[in-house]
Amino acid sequence: MKVLTFGTAVIGLAAVLVQAAAQAQSTPIGNDATTARGRYLVQIGGCNDCHTPGYGMANGQVPESQWLVGDSVGWQGPWGTTYATNLRRWMGQRTEAQWIAYARTMKPRPPMPWFNVRVMSDEDLAAIYRFTTSLGPAGAEAPAYVPPGKEAKGPVIRFPG
Ligand code: HEC
């Protein structure tokens, strides 16, 4: 009976070691718990819905390497035409502290849901920053904002008003 218990413990320990080795191999740099939480928040917070091209149309099946690079589809309404910012570059140009301070007061134009970002905790904002910057800068800058009454190039989604 003792031998069996010892044997089971050895098998259990071996399984833990194998699992740890597999994790160590497949874990990319920066993939700590905070970064993983940032990935989760970006997903459930809807950031990809606008900041990742084609995300909704692909049922969310866009490779992570293409996430948050901004979009050239314009959002047009009484505010003019806005384009979802390339967050990979935007975040990369700021420190984590700068982003958290900015998020507390930011008020970009519609349809950016800044009011949702503002109520996030410092920890959650930091996690989003860590995840986004862990992806590295990629993609071109989104087209510049076009004021009301000025013609926007490319496709637009029109809001009434
Ligand atoms: C419904 C579409 C939409 C969603 C969802 C969305 N964004 Fe945006 N976001 C935009 C647009 C459009 C802009 C550009 C606004 C402008 O030009 O004033 C923008 C701009 C930004 C900016 C730049 C702010 C600035 O002042 O320049 C940041 C940072 C940002 N978004 C972060 C996020 C994060 C983080 C999430 C997820 C929690 C998110 N966005 C979700 C559409 C969206």
How would you sum up this structure, described in words?
- There is one protein chain.
- The protein is mainly alpha-helical and 161 residues long.
- It folds into 2 domains: 1-30; 32-158, no CATH class.
- It has helices spanning 2-26, 33-44, 47-51, 87-92, 96-105, 114-118, 122-134, and strands spanning 74-77, 80-82, 156-158.
- It is globular and about 45 Å long.
- The model is unreliable at 20-27 (pLDDT under 50).
- Residues 45-47, 49-51, 75, 82-85, 87, 90, 106, 108-109, 111-113, 116-117, 128, 145 line the site of heme C (HEC).
H-E order: HHHEEHHHHE
Which structural class do you get from the secondary structure elements? mainly alpha
Our Rg estimate from Cα atoms comes to 21 Å
- Report the bound ligands by name, code or SMILES: heme C
Overall pLDDT, averaged? 88
Question: Strand order across the biggest sheet?
Answer: 2-1-3
Low-confidence regions: 20-27
Q: Considering DSSP H and I runs of 4 or more, what fraction of the residues is helical?
A: 40-55%
Q: Which overall shape is indicated by the principal axes computed on the Cα atoms? A: globular
Distance N terminus to C terminus? 78 Å
Q: Sheet with the most strands? A: 3 strands, mixed
Number of distinct helices: 7
Total separate domains:
2
Let me know the number of strands.
Answer: 3
In percent terms, what proportion of residues is strand? 5-15%
